[in-house]
Amino acid sequence: MYSRSSEPVRFERDCDVVLVPQGEEVTLPAGSIGYITQALGGSYTVFVEGNLFRVAGKDADAIGKEPPEPLELSAGASDDDVEKLVWKQLRTCFDPEIPINIVDLGLVYEAVVKPRDDGTREVEIRMTLTAPACGMGDILVDDVRSKLELIPTVTEADVELVFDPPWNRTMMSEAARLETGML
């Protein structure tokens, strides 16, 4: 949440953002002033007028930040190389309220890279949420899909949101449990 160490920002242009935790898409007008409360995975959580908003990495310029660099994959990369990049990208996906990536939170149950005849690939993801009623669920799914489709040769990411088995804190990595105090 906002603290005295949060970085102040001013929106340089109108910017589509997502209200946290409701998941509602809104537009903040140019000139809005706020504070960055979380900057992880290429997106930003910004506190403006008593509310939290998620600014996507592609819109980083609206708050004076650089958008993420394009992903690169060597020519002739194997499916294993792509799978490693898939897991790396998944670790750039964060719940706007929790400073831990979705992999270490234990939200990703499965990631499968499927080669296609035309040399492209499809990625299938099975993931869950910390709570079924999470208002950010659709936003997280879209974040996963869009970040995976940035990987060269990946033409489609199919992200399935599942609730069986239900998430619990034992699914978190040890580092994530330590970070959240859930040992």
From TrEMBL:
InterPro entries: Fe-S_Maturation_MIP18, FeS_assembly_SufT_put, FSCA_dom_sf, MIP18-like. It comes from the Bacteria. Residues 86-159 form the MIP18 family-like domain. PANTHER family: FE-S PROTEIN MATURATION AUXILIARY FACTOR YITW. This is Fe-S cluster assembly protein SufT. It comes from Noviluteimonas lactosilytica. The lineage of its organism: Bacteria, Pseudomonadati, Pseudomonadota, Gammaproteobacteria, Lysobacterales.
